[in-house]
């Protein structure tokens, strides 16, 4: 799992905790201690997936636009973790019997693991995580 998941979750939790506040990417960057370009990238993903709204202009910013009881950690995972568990196997064109099959074997294993992770993450709503963190 890469850090985009944790950053996206952190952003969503902050904006959920303060639903009436418009957050600029600069302010969120300061709060999380992360470069504003990374924050904007993640906010863009969240906006494309209808989890945040944005308002342009001097008094603009970002807010959440979902029911915290309806969105799960798996929703955030799906947005931020595309192909993270895909094995990176080298191309084995030699006569190695193991090398000929390892990618297919690992793809199957990683697919099972990813399904298990998604299943568990689906058990945690943003509301539940908010209650756990405050």
Q: Can you offer a commentary on this structure?
A:
This protein starts with a helix and ends with a helix. It is built from 6 helices and 2 strands. The longest helix has 25 residues, at 97-121. The chain has 134 residues and is mostly helical. The protein has one domain: Arc Repressor Mutant, subunit A, CATH 1.10.10.10. Helix 1 crosses helix 3 (36-48). The radius of gyration is 19 Å and the shape is elongated. A hairpin with a 5-residue loop joins strand 1 (52-55) and strand 2 (61-64). 57% of the residues lie in helices and 6% in strands. It has a two-stranded antiparallel ribbon with strand order 1-2.
Quickly give the structural class: mainly alpha
Mean pLDDT figure: 90
Bulk shape: elongated
**Level-2 CATH architecture:** Orthogonal Bundle
How many beta-strand runs? 2
What is the radius of gyration computed over CA atoms, rounded to a whole number of angstroms? 19 Å
Bin the strand percentage: 5-15%
Find the CATH superfamily. Answer: Winged helix-like DNA-binding domain superfamily/Winged helix DNA-binding domain
Q: List segments where confidence is low: pLDDT < 50 over at least 5 consecutive residues.
A: none
**Spatial separation of the terminal alpha carbons:** 24 Å
Classify the helix fraction into a percent range: 55-70%
Order of helices and strands: HHHEEHHH
* CATH-assigned fold name: Arc Repressor Mutant, subunit A
If helices are DSSP runs of H or I spanning 4 or more residues, what is the number of helices?
6
């Amino acid at each position: 799992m890469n850090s985009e998941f944790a950053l996206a979750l952190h952003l969503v939790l902050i904006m959920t905790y303060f639903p009436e506040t418009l957050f600029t990417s600069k302010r969120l960057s300061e709060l999380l201690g992360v470069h504003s370009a990374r924050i904007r990238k993640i906010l863009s993903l969240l906006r494309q997936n209808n989890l945040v709204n944005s308002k342009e202009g001097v008094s603009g910013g970002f807010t959440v636009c979902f029911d915290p009881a309806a969105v799960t950690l798996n929703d955030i995972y799906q947005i931020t973790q595309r192909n993270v568990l895909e094995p990176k196997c080298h191309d084995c064109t030699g006569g190695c019997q193991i090398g000929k099959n390892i990618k297919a074997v690992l793809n199957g294993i990683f697919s099972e693991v990813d399904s298990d992770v998604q299943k568990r993450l689906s058990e945690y709503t943003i509301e539940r995580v908010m209650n756990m963190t405050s």
